[in-house]
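lol forgot to send this yesterday, sorry. C-alpha coordinates for the thing we talked abt
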Protein backbone atom coordinates (compact mmCIF):
# COMPACT_ATOMS: atom_id res chain seq x y z
CA UNK A 1 0.00 0.00 0.00
CA UNK A 2 1.40 3.45 -0.85
CA UNK A 3 2.51 5.45 2.19
CA UNK A 4 0.01 8.26 1.50
CA UNK A 5 -2.91 5.85 1.35
CA UNK A 6 -1.80 4.17 4.55
CA UNK A 7 -1.57 7.51 6.33
CA UNK A 8 -5.02 8.50 5.08
CA UNK A 9 -6.48 5.27 6.41
CA UNK A 10 -4.90 5.93 9.81
CA UNK A 11 -6.37 9.43 9.94
CA UNK A 12 -9.85 8.17 9.14
CA UNK A 13 -9.60 5.43 11.75
CA UNK A 14 -8.67 7.93 14.43
CA UNK A 15 -11.18 10.61 13.53
CA UNK A 16 -14.20 8.33 13.03
CA UNK A 17 -16.89 8.14 15.65
CA UNK A 18 -18.38 10.77 17.89
CA UNK A 19 -16.60 11.60 21.11
CA UNK A 20 -18.46 10.68 24.27
CA UNK A 21 -19.28 13.37 26.80
CA UNK A 22 -16.91 13.39 29.77
CA UNK A 23 -18.27 11.80 32.94
CA UNK A 24 -17.18 14.67 35.11
CA UNK A 25 -17.17 17.92 33.16
CA UNK A 26 -15.61 20.02 35.92
CA UNK A 27 -12.68 17.64 36.41
CA UNK A 28 -12.14 17.27 32.68
CA UNK A 29 -12.24 21.04 32.15
CA UNK A 30 -9.70 21.58 34.93
CA UNK A 31 -7.37 19.04 33.30
CA UNK A 32 -7.69 20.75 29.91
CA UNK A 33 -6.96 24.16 31.44
CA UNK A 34 -3.95 22.80 33.31
CA UNK A 35 -2.47 21.30 30.12
CA UNK A 36 -2.76 24.64 28.35
CA UNK A 37 -1.26 26.50 31.29
CA UNK A 38 1.74 24.18 31.37
CA UNK A 39 2.59 24.93 27.75
CA UNK A 40 2.05 28.69 28.04
CA UNK A 41 4.15 28.87 31.20
CA UNK A 42 6.98 26.88 29.60
CA UNK A 43 6.97 29.21 26.61
CA UNK A 44 6.65 32.54 28.43
CA UNK A 45 8.03 32.16 31.98
CA UNK A 46 11.42 31.42 33.49
CA UNK A 47 10.91 27.93 34.89
CA UNK A 48 14.41 26.52 34.56
CA UNK A 49 16.55 25.39 37.45
CA UNK A 50 18.80 28.18 38.68
CA UNK A 51 21.98 26.36 37.69
CA UNK A 52 22.79 25.00 34.23
CA UNK A 53 24.81 21.89 35.01
CA UNK A 54 25.72 21.31 31.37
CA UNK A 55 27.66 24.59 31.42
CA UNK A 56 30.02 22.98 33.94
CA UNK A 57 31.06 20.40 31.34
CA UNK A 58 33.60 20.94 28.56
CA UNK A 59 34.46 18.48 25.82
CA UNK A 60 38.17 18.20 25.08
CA UNK A 61 39.09 19.45 21.62
CA UNK A 62 40.91 17.18 19.16
CA UNK A 63 43.18 19.23 16.87
CA UNK A 64 43.61 16.27 14.49
CA UNK A 65 40.14 14.72 14.28
CA UNK A 66 41.09 12.31 11.46
CA UNK A 67 37.47 12.21 10.29
CA UNK A 68 35.66 14.28 7.71
CA UNK A 69 32.82 16.45 8.99
CA UNK A 70 30.50 14.91 6.39
CA UNK A 71 31.33 11.39 7.56
CA UNK A 72 30.08 11.86 11.13
CA UNK A 73 27.18 9.38 11.36
CA UNK A 74 24.32 10.37 13.66
CA UNK A 75 22.05 7.42 12.89
CA UNK A 76 21.27 4.73 15.46
CA UNK A 77 18.84 1.99 16.44
CA UNK A 78 16.78 2.67 19.56
CA UNK A 79 14.44 0.02 20.98
CA UNK A 80 14.31 -1.71 17.61
CA UNK A 81 13.64 1.40 15.51
CA UNK A 82 16.11 3.04 13.14
CA UNK A 83 16.47 6.77 13.76
CA UNK A 84 18.27 9.54 11.93
CA UNK A 85 19.87 11.03 15.03
CA UNK A 86 20.13 10.50 18.81
CA UNK A 87 17.60 13.24 19.61
CA UNK A 88 14.22 12.58 21.18
CA UNK A 89 11.58 15.30 21.20
CA UNK A 90 10.62 14.78 24.82
CA UNK A 91 7.08 14.38 26.11
CA UNK A 92 5.43 17.76 26.37
CA UNK A 93 1.85 18.32 25.40
CA UNK A 94 -1.63 17.16 24.46
CA UNK A 95 -5.06 17.39 26.05
CA UNK A 96 -6.12 20.94 25.13
CA UNK A 97 -7.24 22.35 21.75
CA UNK A 98 -4.05 24.05 20.52
CA UNK A 99 -1.97 21.00 21.41
CA UNK A 100 -3.20 19.39 18.20
CA UNK A 101 -1.34 22.00 16.16
CA UNK A 102 1.77 21.92 18.35
CA UNK A 103 2.04 18.13 18.30
CA UNK A 104 1.57 18.13 14.53
CA UNK A 105 4.38 20.67 14.20
CA UNK A 106 6.64 18.57 16.43
CA UNK A 107 5.77 15.49 14.38
CA UNK A 108 6.66 17.30 11.17
CA UNK A 109 10.08 18.14 12.60
CA UNK A 110 10.57 14.56 13.80
CA UNK A 111 9.61 13.18 10.39
CA UNK A 112 11.99 15.52 8.57
CA UNK A 113 14.98 14.39 10.62
CA UNK A 114 14.04 10.82 11.59
CA UNK A 115 13.71 11.58 15.30
CA UNK A 116 11.82 9.96 18.16
CA UNK A 117 8.86 11.79 19.66
CA UNK A 118 6.91 11.43 22.90
CA UNK A 119 3.52 12.99 23.61
CA UNK A 120 2.47 14.50 26.91
CA UNK A 121 0.44 12.63 29.52
CA UNK A 122 -2.61 11.10 27.82
CA UNK A 123 -4.87 10.98 30.86
CA UNK A 124 -6.78 13.95 29.41
CA UNK A 125 -7.85 11.76 26.49
CA UNK A 126 -9.56 9.39 28.92
CA UNK A 127 -11.32 12.18 30.77
CA UNK A 128 -12.29 14.03 27.56
CA UNK A 129 -12.40 11.76 24.49
CA UNK A 130 -12.78 14.80 22.24
CA UNK A 131 -9.16 15.59 23.16
CA UNK A 132 -7.84 12.42 21.50
CA UNK A 133 -7.07 14.32 18.34
CA UNK A 134 -4.65 16.57 20.21
CA UNK A 135 -2.44 13.51 20.60
CA UNK A 136 -3.11 11.53 17.44
CA UNK A 137 -2.08 14.47 15.27
CA UNK A 138 1.51 13.22 15.73
CA UNK A 139 0.60 10.46 13.27
CA UNK A 140 -0.24 12.96 10.54
CA UNK A 141 3.44 12.71 9.62
CA UNK A 142 5.72 9.72 9.18
CA UNK A 143 7.46 9.72 12.57
CA UNK A 144 9.74 6.68 12.99
CA UNK A 145 9.23 6.36 16.75
CA UNK A 146 6.25 7.59 18.77
CA UNK A 147 5.93 7.03 22.52
CA UNK A 148 2.64 7.06 24.43
CA UNK A 149 2.70 8.50 27.95
CA UNK A 150 1.06 7.89 31.33
CA UNK A 151 1.99 8.95 34.86
CA UNK A 152 3.10 6.53 37.56
CA UNK A 153 0.79 8.25 40.12
CA UNK A 154 -2.19 7.41 37.91
CA UNK A 155 -1.36 3.70 38.19
CA UNK A 156 -2.28 3.93 41.88
CA UNK A 157 -5.51 4.76 43.66
CA UNK A 158 -5.53 8.44 44.53
CA UNK A 159 -7.87 10.44 46.72
CA UNK A 160 -9.86 11.60 43.70
CA UNK A 161 -10.06 8.44 41.68
CA UNK A 162 -9.22 4.84 40.90
CA UNK A 163 -6.04 3.80 39.10
CA UNK A 164 -5.89 3.39 35.36
CA UNK A 165 -7.01 -0.06 34.27
CA UNK A 166 -5.41 -2.44 31.80
CA UNK A 167 -8.00 -1.39 29.23
CA UNK A 168 -7.22 2.28 29.85
CA UNK A 169 -3.51 1.80 29.31
CA UNK A 170 -3.95 -0.39 26.25
CA UNK A 171 -6.32 2.16 24.70
CA UNK A 172 -3.76 4.93 25.09
CA UNK A 173 -1.06 2.85 23.39
CA UNK A 174 -3.43 1.82 20.60
CA UNK A 175 -4.59 5.39 20.11
CA UNK A 176 -1.14 6.34 18.84
CA UNK A 177 -0.11 2.99 17.38
CA UNK A 178 2.76 3.68 19.75
CA UNK A 179 6.22 2.16 19.50
CA UNK A 180 6.81 2.48 23.27
CA UNK A 181 5.04 3.54 26.44
CA UNK A 182 6.55 6.17 28.70
CA UNK A 183 5.61 6.01 32.37
CA UNK A 184 6.61 9.29 33.94
CA UNK A 185 7.70 9.84 37.54
CA UNK A 186 6.59 13.33 38.54
CA UNK A 187 6.14 13.33 42.30
CA UNK A 188 7.93 16.65 42.75
CA UNK A 189 5.39 18.23 40.42
CA UNK A 190 2.48 16.54 42.19
CA UNK A 191 3.63 17.88 45.57
CA UNK A 192 3.50 21.49 44.37
CA UNK A 193 0.51 21.14 42.04
CA UNK A 194 -2.85 22.10 43.55
CA UNK A 195 -4.75 18.86 44.07
CA UNK A 196 -1.73 16.75 43.15
CA UNK A 197 -1.72 12.95 43.34
CA UNK A 198 0.47 12.07 46.34
CA UNK A 199 -0.09 8.33 46.85
CA UNK A 200 3.22 6.69 45.91
CA UNK A 201 3.37 3.37 47.78
CA UNK A 202 3.39 0.47 45.32
CA UNK A 203 4.45 2.46 42.23
CA UNK A 204 7.32 0.13 41.32
CA UNK A 205 4.97 -2.86 41.43
CA UNK A 206 2.47 -1.03 39.26
CA UNK A 207 5.19 -0.28 36.72
CA UNK A 208 6.17 -3.96 36.70
CA UNK A 209 2.55 -4.93 35.97
CA UNK A 210 2.58 -2.73 32.89
CA UNK A 211 4.87 -5.27 31.24
CA UNK A 212 1.96 -7.71 31.28
CA UNK A 213 -0.48 -5.12 29.96
CA UNK A 214 1.26 -3.82 26.85
CA UNK A 215 3.32 -5.37 24.07
CA UNK A 216 5.59 -2.37 23.50
CA UNK A 217 8.76 -1.43 25.41
CA UNK A 218 8.46 0.65 28.57
CA UNK A 219 10.48 3.83 29.10
CA UNK A 220 10.65 5.11 32.67
CA UNK A 221 10.98 8.90 32.71
CA UNK A 222 11.64 11.42 35.45
CA UNK A 223 10.34 14.90 34.72
CA UNK A 224 13.02 17.26 35.98
CA UNK A 225 14.33 15.91 39.28
CA UNK A 226 16.62 13.13 37.99
CA UNK A 227 17.33 9.78 39.62
CA UNK A 228 20.06 7.67 41.18
CA UNK A 229 21.50 4.27 40.32
CA UNK A 230 19.34 2.70 43.06
CA UNK A 231 16.17 3.94 41.41
CA UNK A 232 17.48 3.00 37.97
CA UNK A 233 18.22 -0.52 39.22
CA UNK A 234 14.68 -0.86 40.61
CA UNK A 235 13.25 0.23 37.28
CA UNK A 236 15.50 -2.18 35.42
CA UNK A 237 14.33 -5.08 37.58
CA UNK A 238 10.72 -3.99 36.99
CA UNK A 239 11.25 -4.61 33.29
CA UNK A 240 11.63 -1.18 31.72
CA UNK A 241 13.53 -1.17 28.44
CA UNK A 242 15.06 2.30 28.73
CA UNK A 243 15.41 5.13 31.24
CA UNK A 244 14.89 8.82 30.55
CA UNK A 245 16.64 10.51 33.45
CA UNK A 246 14.73 13.81 33.24
CA UNK A 247 17.36 15.47 35.40
CA UNK A 248 17.81 18.81 37.10
CA UNK A 249 19.27 21.42 34.75
CA UNK A 250 16.41 22.59 32.56
CA UNK A 251 12.70 23.04 33.13
CA UNK A 252 11.67 22.15 36.66
CA UNK A 253 8.00 21.48 37.23
CA UNK A 254 8.35 22.79 40.76
CA UNK A 255 8.80 26.18 39.10
CA UNK A 256 5.97 25.57 36.62
CA UNK A 257 3.56 24.71 39.42
CA UNK A 258 4.94 27.62 41.46
CA UNK A 259 3.68 29.98 38.75
CA UNK A 260 0.27 28.26 38.67
CA UNK A 261 -0.03 28.25 42.45
CA UNK A 262 0.64 31.99 42.66
CA UNK A 263 -1.99 32.69 40.02
CA UNK A 264 -4.52 30.66 41.98
CA UNK A 265 -3.65 32.31 45.28
CA UNK A 266 -2.19 29.09 46.70
CA UNK A 267 0.62 30.79 48.61
CA UNK A 268 1.52 27.74 50.68
CA UNK A 269 2.09 25.70 47.50
CA UNK A 270 3.88 28.62 45.87
CA UNK A 271 6.29 28.74 48.79
CA UNK A 272 6.84 25.00 48.43
CA UNK A 273 7.59 25.40 44.73
CA UNK A 274 10.10 28.17 45.41
CA UNK A 275 11.82 26.10 48.10
CA UNK A 276 12.09 22.98 45.92
CA UNK A 277 12.79 24.67 42.59
CA UNK A 278 16.34 23.29 42.54
CA UNK A 279 15.54 19.92 44.06
CA UNK A 280 16.87 16.88 42.26
CA UNK A 281 19.84 15.07 40.78
CA UNK A 282 21.63 17.01 38.03
CA UNK A 283 21.20 15.56 34.55
CA UNK A 284 24.91 14.75 33.98
CA UNK A 285 25.05 12.79 37.24
CA UNK A 286 21.74 11.02 36.56
CA UNK A 287 23.01 9.93 33.13
CA UNK A 288 26.04 8.26 34.69
CA UNK A 289 23.91 6.71 37.42
CA UNK A 290 21.30 5.28 35.03
CA UNK A 291 24.05 4.05 32.73
CA UNK A 292 25.06 1.58 35.43
CA UNK A 293 22.02 -0.53 34.53
CA UNK A 294 23.25 -1.21 31.01
CA UNK A 295 19.91 -0.01 29.64
CA UNK A 296 19.60 2.66 26.95
CA UNK A 297 19.60 6.08 28.60
CA UNK A 298 17.85 9.24 27.36
CA UNK A 299 19.40 12.42 28.76
CA UNK A 300 16.56 14.91 29.19
CA UNK A 301 16.82 17.97 31.39
CA UNK A 302 18.62 21.08 30.21
CA UNK A 303 19.52 19.90 26.71
CA UNK A 304 18.96 23.07 24.71
CA UNK A 305 21.41 22.69 21.80
CA UNK A 306 23.58 20.21 19.96
CA UNK A 307 26.59 20.81 22.20
CA UNK A 308 24.57 19.84 25.29
CA UNK A 309 23.48 16.72 23.42
CA UNK A 310 27.11 15.85 22.65
CA UNK A 311 28.05 16.28 26.32
CA UNK A 312 25.25 13.90 27.29
CA UNK A 313 26.46 11.32 24.76
CA UNK A 314 30.00 11.68 26.09
CA UNK A 315 28.68 10.73 29.54
CA UNK A 316 27.20 7.54 28.11
CA UNK A 317 23.67 8.56 27.11
CA UNK A 318 22.15 6.75 24.13
CA UNK A 319 19.92 9.68 23.22
CA UNK A 320 19.44 13.29 24.24
CA UNK A 321 15.91 14.50 24.92
CA UNK A 322 14.75 18.05 24.18
CA UNK A 323 11.61 19.56 25.64
CA UNK A 324 11.39 23.29 26.30
CA UNK A 325 13.71 24.41 23.49
CA UNK A 326 11.89 22.30 20.90
CA UNK A 327 8.51 23.43 22.21
CA UNK A 328 9.34 27.12 21.91
CA UNK A 329 10.31 26.58 18.26
CA UNK A 330 7.31 24.40 17.41
CA UNK A 331 4.70 26.84 18.74
CA UNK A 332 5.85 29.22 15.98
CA UNK A 333 5.19 26.74 13.18
CA UNK A 334 6.21 23.44 11.63
CA UNK A 335 9.00 24.93 9.51
CA UNK A 336 10.41 26.79 12.51
CA UNK A 337 10.43 23.59 14.55
CA UNK A 338 12.15 21.61 11.79
CA UNK A 339 14.70 24.40 11.22
CA UNK A 340 15.54 24.56 14.92
CA UNK A 341 16.18 20.83 15.09
CA UNK A 342 18.31 20.98 11.93
CA UNK A 343 20.45 23.54 13.75
CA UNK A 344 20.69 21.21 16.75
CA UNK A 345 21.84 18.35 14.53
CA UNK A 346 24.44 20.57 12.85
CA UNK A 347 25.73 21.59 16.28
CA UNK A 348 25.88 17.97 17.42
CA UNK A 349 27.71 16.86 14.29
CA UNK A 350 30.21 19.68 14.77
CA UNK A 351 30.89 18.70 18.39
CA UNK A 352 31.53 15.09 17.36
CA UNK A 353 33.76 16.22 14.49
CA UNK A 354 35.84 18.47 16.77
CA UNK A 355 36.39 15.57 19.17
CA UNK A 356 37.37 13.15 16.39
CA UNK A 357 34.23 11.04 16.80
CA UNK A 358 32.82 9.50 13.64
CA UNK A 359 30.39 7.02 15.21
CA UNK A 360 27.91 7.42 18.06
CA UNK A 361 29.23 4.21 19.59
CA UNK A 362 32.53 6.04 20.25
CA UNK A 363 30.96 9.12 21.86
CA UNK A 364 31.34 7.75 25.40
CA UNK A 365 35.12 7.89 24.92
CA UNK A 366 35.17 11.66 24.46
CA UNK A 367 37.12 13.28 27.31
CA UNK A 368 34.96 15.53 29.50
CA UNK A 369 36.23 18.16 31.93
CA UNK A 370 33.83 18.86 34.81
CA UNK A 371 33.95 21.98 36.97
CA UNK A 372 31.81 23.83 39.49
CA UNK A 373 28.78 22.26 41.18
CA UNK A 374 28.70 19.41 38.64
CA UNK A 375 32.21 18.34 39.61
CA UNK A 376 31.17 18.48 43.26
CA UNK A 377 28.15 16.27 42.58
CA UNK A 378 30.25 13.79 40.60
CA UNK A 379 32.79 13.46 43.38
CA UNK A 380 30.04 13.08 45.98
CA UNK A 381 28.64 10.17 43.96
CA UNK A 382 32.04 8.51 43.69
CA UNK A 383 32.99 9.51 40.15
CA UNK A 384 36.54 10.52 39.35
CA UNK A 385 36.67 13.76 37.31
CA UNK A 386 40.19 12.80 36.18
CA UNK A 387 38.81 9.59 34.69
CA UNK A 388 36.17 11.56 32.79
CA UNK A 389 38.80 13.91 31.43
CA UNK A 390 40.66 10.87 30.15
CA UNK A 391 37.57 9.61 28.32
CA UNK A 392 36.66 6.89 30.83
CA UNK A 393 33.35 6.54 32.66
CA UNK A 394 34.91 4.79 35.65
CA UNK A 395 33.54 5.41 39.12
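and heres what i got for the seq, position by position
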Amino acid sequence: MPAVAKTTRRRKARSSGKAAAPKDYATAKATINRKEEHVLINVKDDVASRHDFFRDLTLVHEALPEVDHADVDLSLTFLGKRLGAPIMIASMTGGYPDAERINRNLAYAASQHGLALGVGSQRAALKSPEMRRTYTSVRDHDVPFVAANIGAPQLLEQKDGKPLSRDDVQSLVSMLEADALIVHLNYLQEVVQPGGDLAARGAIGAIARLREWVDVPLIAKETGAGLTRRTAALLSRAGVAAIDVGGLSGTTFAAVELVRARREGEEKLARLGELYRDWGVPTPVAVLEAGRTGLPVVATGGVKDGLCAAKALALGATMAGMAGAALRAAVKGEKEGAAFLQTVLDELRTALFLTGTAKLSDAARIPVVAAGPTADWLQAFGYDPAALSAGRLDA
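Confidence is low (pLDDT under 50) at residues 1-23. anyway ping me if u want another try
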